[in-house]
Write a structure and sequence with these properties.
The complex is a heterodimer of chains A (about 220) and B (about 240). With about 220 residues, chain A is mainly α. Helix content of chain A is about 80%, strand content about 0%. Chain A is flat, with a radius of gyration of 21 Å. The chains are: A mainly alpha (about 220), B alpha/beta (about 240). Chains A and B meet through helix 6 and helix 7 of A and helix 2, strand 6, helix 3 and helix 5 of B.
Chain lengths: ~220, ~240
């Protein structure tokens, strides 16, 4: 009990950072995923090609390797540390790499959501003279979004867990703080157990929130 | 109002329309009949650009649809379309279904769009359903909302693609009644349908299509009672 009570403030500070990285990555992954999905469905072959290459590259390599490559590898050939600052670059690069990685999966979720909307909906929108943007914005995306919520929440949970991979590249968050505490107290069982519990609480509340959201949309039928 | 010259449409190597030429006058109600696969729905969908013509020329509401310089969205404001499967926007209420076109496309104010929508919903007999969602309505009611949604854009021509084919028999009448009212008010209409009673009663002209071509056309009475072509005769014998 003692090592936990003594070090709880440090770990909670780590949790705060984990939550911050998670929020940033979740917002960015949705934005990136939406843009890349629209590119994948574009009539312009070049846009389709770029988006497909992006998705395939990020899905087919491990996140940890991507993080090492961009956070620690890139500074070896580019003066990125000078451009962004010695302390800022790793944080920016790590958050961005994580977002890009998760965004690749969101791209597929959004794409499937858009393709799942009945073709008749699009044709009806065209028949009342809506252009491509209006059709997407007012008719297709709102309907696609509803069916995207469960897989998106799933991906958000995955993103929260994936922030733990920021520790190995030197980003301070919950796992990083935990390792420091353990190095000082040797209470690895208690501290790892506590860290797991904190992640559990975070992700479990997210999934509860998601089932509430789904229920509410069900009640409204939309 | 509509002028079609040598319209061809192919999907890959499959030629669906093999040279359609016809003309629709203002306030005319033209009914297109024919066996399934004859190309009548494709023909209708070409008239508002949902399918692009492979070759030929379509003039509609004073614009040349087949001219690549024509703004298709501008043109579609003048051409309403009603689908077999209604295709109401599932995530919007009945009122929003009718107002979204005027509000977003024509930039009409919400108050004005609502006012017009309520009038149109009254016209198609759906007062009190404004706040419902499409899947809470019967098929016949949904199709009448779809007609109101098209009318809200103030079209010069209305296209109907088998508007009663997906309906239970007892709901066919209410939709045909709305269409009949429109015809009497002088709307220019092109109707693809299997409802021969409607064709006979409301249609000014009937076009019989088969195998991607117009086989025969004429006044309903003449075409139904005295068809000239064998294919028309055998088709009518099967359905009448």
């Amino acid at each position: 009990m003692d090592p936990i009570r003594q070090n709880l403030p440090v770990l909670l500070d780590g949790l705060r950072l984990t939550i911050q990285y998670s929020i940033v990555a979740i917002i960015l992954m949705v934005v990136i995923g939406l843009i890349a999905a629209l590119m994948r469905l574009s009539k312009v072959a070049l846009l389709r090609w770029i988006a497909t290459a992006y998705v395939e590259i990020f899905r087919s390599t491990p996140l940890l390797v991507q993080l090492f490559f961009i956070v620690l590898g890139l500074p070896a050939i580019l003066p990125v540390n000078r451009w962004f600052g010695q302390l800022t670059y790793p944080i920016l690069a790590a958050a961005f790499t994580l977002s890009l990685n998760e965004g690749a999966y969101v791209t597929e979720i959004v794409r499937a959501g858009i393709l799942g909307v009945d073709r008749g909906q699009k044709e009806a929108a065209q028949s009342i003279a809506m252009n491509g943007f209006q059709t997407m914005r007012y008719i297709v995306l709102p309907q696609a979004f509803k069916r995207m919520i469960p897989p998106l929440v799933n991906q958000a949970a995955q993103t929260i867990k994936d922030t733990s991979l920021l520790a190995p590249v030197g980003i301070v968050e919950l796992v990083y703080k935990g390792q420091i505490v353990i190095a000082q107290t040797f209470a690895s069982f208690a501290i790892w157990g506590l860290i797991a519990a904190l992640y559990f609480i975070l992700i479990f509340s997210l999934s509860k929130f998601s089932s509430y959201l789904e229920r509410r949309l069900q009640v409204d039928k939309r | 109002m509509i002028n079609v010259k040598e319209l061809h449409k192919s999907f890959g190597h499959n030629e669906i329309l093999k040279g359609i030429s016809t003309h629709v006058e203002e306030k005319e109600v033209v009914v297109v009949i024919g066996p399934s696969g004859s190309g009548k729905s494709t023909f209708l969908r070409c008239l508002n650009g949902l399918e692009a013509a492979t070759s030929g020329e379509i003039e509609i509401a004073g614009m040349t649809l087949t001219d690549p310089k024509t703004n298709i969205h501008k043109l579609r404001q003048h051409v309403g379309m009603v689908f077999q499967q209604f295709n109401l926007f599932k995530h919007l209420t009945i009122l929003e279904n009718v107002t979204i076109g005027p509000r977003k496309v024509k930039k009409v104010s919400t108050e004005e769009a609502n006012r017009v929508a309520r009038e149109l919903l009254a016209k198609v007999g759906l007062v009190g359903k404004e706040k419902n969602y499409p899947d809470e309505l019967s098929g016949g009611q949904q199709q009448r909302v779809a007609i109101a949604r098209s009318l809200a854009m103030g079209p010069d021509v209305m296209l109907f693609d088998e508007p009663t084919s997906a309906l239970d028999p007892e709901m066919v009448g209410e939709v045909l009644q709305v269409m009949k009212t429109l015809a009497i008010e002088g709307m220019t209409m092109v109707v693809v349908t299997h409802e021969m009673g409607f064709a006979r009663e409301v249609g000014h002209r009937v076009i019989f299509m088969d195998d991607g071509m117009i086989v025969e056309e004429g006044a309903p009475r003449a075409l139904f009672s005295d068809p000239q072509r064998d294919r028309t005769k055998s088709f009518l014998a099967k359905i009448l």
